[in-house]
Amino acid sequence: MRRGAEPITFRDPLPADHVAFVNGGTGTMWGFVSPADDDADRLAASAFVAIAQASAATVPAGTPVTVMGDGLLAYLLRHLLPDALATGAEPSVIIDTTGSPPAIHEAVATLPRLGHLVLAAPPRDANSYLATYQDLHVRALTVTGPKPIPARIGADDAAIDEALRLLVRVAPGHTVPEGGVWYAIQSQEPA
């Protein structure tokens, strides 16, 4: 499968009768795999909504925030935090939705003293280097992930329906279209 001119590969082969739901955008792509059943799309959308809600819940009211990324998770966060994004003030919270080590390093470098970085997406490199003394300790930065919230169908129907409206299906071996915020790649038709 290809996205634009870049190949998309999975670490492990996609199991038969499974679908990969991939956070899109122009940055690092990430996602998860689930069995391809009637509720798979809705459950995947509700999982993304739950991650967005949990990430947004880490931002204290009135705190300026920046959302890094442009996939589905970033899209949902921008809709959950419109007032915090529109302040024009220097952000004291950055929510990274890419999982990209360069984006994470950029966020750490950008945050002011006492800033907060929320890793909403799983980091692509489990061993990414951060200067724990210089960046985190001296500047008193906080790095967290979203508090886990179980995905529930019907948890927020409007947000889930919006996510489903944005889902782009891609057949294995085909080019992933540019500009999609999330994709479903199915291994084969369910039996």
Description:
The chain is an alpha/beta fold and 191 residues long. The chain has one domain (2-186): Rossmann fold. It is 29% helix and 22% strand. The chain is built from six helices and eleven strands. The strands form three sheets. It has a four-stranded mixed sheet with strand order 4-3-11-9. A four-stranded parallel sheet has the order 5-6-7-8, with helices on both faces. The radius of gyration is 17 Å and the shape is globular. 34% of the residues are buried. The mean pLDDT is 83.
- Determine the strand fraction and express it as a percent band: 15-25%
Low-confidence stretches: none
| CATH topology value | Rossmann fold
Our Rg estimate from Cα atoms comes to 17 Å
| CATH-derived architecture | 3-Layer(aba) Sandwich
Please identify the structural class as seen in this structure: alpha/beta
Binned, the helix content reads 25-40%
Could you name the CATH class?
Alpha Beta
- Can you tell me the overall shape? globular
